[in-house]
Amino acid sequence: MPASELGKSGAKVRVVIIVASIGGVSGVLLLGYFIWRTKSKGKKPKTVENGNQEEDLELPSFDLFTIINATNNFSASNKLGQGGFGPVYRGKLEDGQEIAVKRLSISSGQGIDELKNEVILIAKLQHRNLVNLLGCCIQGEEKLLVYEYMPNKGLDSFIFDQNKAKLLQWDKRFQIICGIARGLLYLHQDSRLRIIHRDLKASNVLLDNEMNPKISDFGLARTFGGDQIEGNTNRVVGTYGYMAPEYVSNGQFSTKSDVFSFGMMVLEIVSGKRSTSFSQQKEDLTLSGHAWTLMQQGMAIELLDSCLRDSDHNLQEVLCCIHVGLLCVQQRAADRPSMSSVVVMLSSDDHVLPCPNRPGYFMETESPQRYSDSSLTSLVTISGTEAP
């Protein structure tokens, strides 16, 4: 073969090799891109509109198909609860992680703003005593929030159940009280925002597999900026029995209205009784009124849950919690301690506590009237709902 033909043939071979190499590299890169897209599917940062602004939350966005698979197409067997937002479902991702999915009902016009509010707020919060928001899914009519799953559900499912209450011995109850206090202190003082929860109650405190408490449901929460210490609203929403007097009567809310709700929860945790349905038959006292009366008589320990009285408990801790709870449910907001003071009171053995005055809602007749569903809303939580 002539040398010129050999040269042409060699050039053709080199061209073929180069083209094949480029094609191979491109194929590998393309395959790598699709693998990356698959792994990151449903994990893009989500931009959520807040009023006239949009906030880049750097919050993972789950694909709707992923959520449908995880919840078995939102099956009834996976349903955890139902409320104002809509249903909440248990699910499991392909990697085995369990999740709780809050699904905004398509027919619910009320919950859209609250859902956006919850996403914007909780995406900025990180604390061991706050529930962890994993991401969201907003596709078409579907609006979903994805949380870490709390296997022990809500605090209310333990303290108000005669059988399960025995599983919460005093040391664990005290740990839960202190954990809630630290979480609330973070919201009020230690986070980047000053946040008023406005719907703190036993069913909105979830328990992980080690019974550590985590505050949940920030749909009604409000933020304060600068030197703002209180706010007002014409739309009073919350849960009967936990709302502070000034909030019910005037729509006024502040960190001290959260303190009131915390105090009611403390008395519930100690006693195992619901503040919303407690009534002392002889005197028609509320739970807080009953606790204050026992303290005045030097019999505060009688408030302790009957299932704990024969078991080991730290008497000083029990009496301290009752005392702190009563300080938190004072009629006047100014008479209630801050959460920073509460944390100090609960952690100090030699702290001298001020004497609590007669609490707000002392008598059942002084309690606010039970509102209709249109004016008093109890929103859904991951653990389910609580009737007012």
TrEMBL record:
It catalyses: L-threonyl-[protein] + ATP = O-phospho-L-threonyl-[protein] + ADP + H(+); L-seryl-[protein] + ATP = O-phospho-L-seryl-[protein] + ADP + H(+). It is an enzyme of class 2 (transferase). This is non-specific serine/threonine protein kinase. Its EC number is 2.7.11.1. GO terms for molecular function: ATP binding; protein serine/threonine kinase activity. Residues 74-354 form the Protein kinase domain. Pfam families: PK_Tyr_Ser-Thr (PF07714). The keyword Lipoprotein does not apply. The chain crosses the membrane at residues 15-36. Gene3D superfamilies: Phosphorylase Kinase, domain 1, Transferase(Phosphotransferase) domain 1. The keyword ATP-binding applies.
